[in-house]
Amino acid sequence: MKRTLSEIAAMCGGQLNMPGGGAAVAEKVAEAEKVVEAEKVIEGVTTDSRKLTEGCLFIPLTGEKFDGHDYAADCLQRGAGAVLWSRKRSDIPANGPVILVDDTLAALQQLSKAYLQAVGARVIGITGSNGKTTTKDIMTSLLSTTYKVHKTQGNFNNHIGLPLTILAMPEDTEFAVLEMGMSARGEIELLSLIAQPELAIITNIGESHLEHLGSREEIARAKTEILAGMKPGGLFVYNGDEPLIPMVLDEPETSKPEGLRTWTFGLGPHNDMHPTSMVQQSAGTAFTTNVFGSEASFSLPLLGKHNVSNALGAMSAAAYYKVSEADISLGLEQIRLTGMRIELLKGTSGITILNDAYNASPTSMRVALEVLGSMNGFGRRIAVLGDMLELGENAEQMHREVGSFITGEIADLIYVYGPLGAYIAEGAAQQLQPDSVRAFTDKAGLIEALESVLHPDDVVLVKASRGNRLEEVAQAIQNFNLQQS
C-alpha cells in the first residue's frame, strides 16, 4: 500500500495528529507545514516493530501479554512514517505523525477493506479443514499464467494476517487469492466481510477444531461463513463429495448473497468436475477430467488423489475466469507449494521423505497414509506420526482409529510421538506385528531410533499437528548418513 497520511486517516476512520501537541490537521488547515505533512506518502504496513521499513505505517496491536503501543515512539524514531494510536491511551507520541483511532485492530481491518476496494482486485476466498493452502497455491499458479495475482503468504489467514496480506498487495493486482482460516464461529464471516470475494472455494470439512466447535456440522457452518461477505451473483465452488456443505447451504440461518451460483468438484462422478482417470507417478499424478475431455491429460507434481481433488477446485475457478486449457496445464506444472504439505524430499543418503508436518487431522492423516501406501518401488514404507491437536473429548478414540487404519499394505513400520500418538500405536498394534510399532515421548530418542533402523531405499512419511514440530525429525532424517542393508 502506498497512500498519503490524510488518505490513510480517511480510509481507516482515524484523525490525523502531527508532532508538536497537534490537534487534527482538519482543524489547523492554516498551518501550511502540517497540511504539507498530511500529504506525505506512507509505503507499507507492519504490526511487528522488528520488521520496520523506512516510511511505513506501524499499527500497534494489543494482546494478553503485549501492547504494541509501547514500541510506537521507538518505531517513529527508527523511521516509521506514521503510527496508529488508540484513543484509549493518552500518552500520544510526540516525535512523529499519529493517526488516532478507536481500536487499532478494527482500523487495520477497515484500512485493508478500503485499500482492496480502491485497487479493485477480484477476490477469490478459499477455506476448508484440509487442503486450503495447497488449493491456494494451485489457484495462484493457474491464474498467474494469465493475470497479475497476489496471494496469502504462509499462514497469514486470520483476522490480522488477511488484512496484512491485502495491504501488501501491489496496485496493479488483478486477482487476490486469499486463504481464510478459523478456530471458532464468526471468524470466517469477519474475513469474508473484509475481502468480499466474488468466488469462494471450500475444499472439505474435516475434524480440525472439534474441540472448539463440537461437531462436523458446526465446522461446516463455520466454513460456509465464507459466503457472508460474497458479492451478489458470486460463484461458490465446493467439494461435492461432502454432504454437509449442501446441507448447511440450505439452512435458513446461512448467510449468502443474492443470486449465488454453485459448482461442485471432487472425486465422485456426480460432481460438475471430476477425474475420469488418475495414474500416480514417481513424483506426482497424471489425470484427466470430464470437463476437458479424455484427450487432455494433466500432470500434477503432487502425490495423492486428495491433491487431484484440490487441483480440480482450482481448475474449476481458473476455467471460470477463462484461463485456457494450455495455461491450466502449464500452471499445474509450475506450482510452488507452501512447505511441509506432503513435500517430497530426498536425503543425503538417498532416502525419500514425505514431509507433511504442518498440520494433521484424522481425515488428512488417513489421506497421507494412503499416499504412503501407494508409494511403490521402495525398500520399506515407514510412518512417523505425532499428536493430532484440537480434537476435543474424543481425541483418544480418533487417534486409535487412525492407528487401526494402518495395515501392512500401507506401512511396514510405525513410529509415533507424543502422548496422543501413543493411542495411534495402540490402534496400529491391532493390525501390525507388535515389534513393527514403537512409541516415543522424547524427540531425540525418536530420531536416534530412526537413524538406527532406516535404509537409503526406504520411504518415510512424517506427519503431525504443527505443535509437535515434527519437521525437526524430517530434517534430521534428511541428513542421516545411512548405509545400505
Helix-strand blueprint:
Blueprint: E1 2-4, H1 5-11, E2 15-17, H2 32-38, E3 41-43, E4 45-46, E5 57-58, H3 72-77, E6 82-86, E7 98-101, H4 104-119, E8 122-127, H5 132-143, E9 149-151, H6 161-167, E10 175-179, H7 187-195, E11 199-202, H8 210-213, H9 216-223, E12 235-239, H10 244-249, E13 261-265, E14 275-281, E15 284-289, E16 293-300, H11 305-320, H12 325-333, E17 343-346, E18 352-356, H13 362-373, E19 381-386, H14 395-405, E20 413-417, H15 421-428, E21 437-440, H16 443-453, E22 459-463, H17 471-478
Parallel strand pairs: 4-5, 5-6, 6-7, 8-10, 8-11, 9-10, 11-12, 12-13, 18-22, 19-20, 19-22, 20-21
Antiparallel strand pairs: 1-3, 2-7, 14-15, 15-16, 17-18
Helix pairs in contact: 4-6, 5-11, 5-12, 14-15
Name some characteristics of this structure.
Protein-Tyrosine Phosphatase, Chain A, UDP-N-acetylmuramoyl-L-alanine:D-glutamate ligase, 3 domains, alpha/beta, 32% helix, 485 residues, Udp-n-acetylmuramoylalanyl-d-glutamate--2,6- Diaminopimelate Ligase, Chain: A, domain 1, 6-stranded mixed sheet, 22 strands, 6-stranded parallel sheet
